[in-house]
Design goal:
Layout (H helix, E strand, L loop, with lengths): L2 H21 L5 H6 L5 H13 L2 H14 L7 H22 L5 H8 L2 H32 L5 H29 L1
Helix pairs in contact: 1-8, 3-8, 4-7, 6-7, 7-8
Amino acid sequence: MNLVLIAILIYVFLQLVLGFVISRRIHTEDDYLLAGRKLGYGLATFSIFATWFGAEACIGTSGAAFSEGLYGVTADPFGYGLCLIVMGIVFAVPLWKRKLTTVADMLRQRYSFRAERIAAFVIAPASLFWAAAQIRAFGQVLSASSELTVVAAITIAACVVIAYTVMGGLLADAISDMI
């Protein structure tokens, strides 16, 4: 077993321990889904950065740079940054002020229950694809640093991510992102 794999396994173990420890602090739906609305700017900033520039972005951007050269990745940081600014101004502030959880909640409040359902139907697949890309990249890193096949490594990565997120919700995810 090489040192890289040992380090990854220690990190994965710590993620699971973190999810378990944080699960003891969850008492309400807001605690689970929104970290009790108490993330703070520092932790939220680390989490957003890690989410947007996580495994998928690193692996995907590296692959694009390899196949297309630097020109193939010049728009990435600007696109990510612009999207974060627009999402913060257009959605985050109104959601926070109204104490809502999702964009679909805001559409229900503004328009109707039907608008909420349509938004959820459109947003959910995009979120699943984003998560799948992150988990696939994590699996590829595991596979590259071990004797595991890519499919086995992705399966393990998915189980780990699901386990610590189910246990600790957003707070476990945010703290894991920061680490």
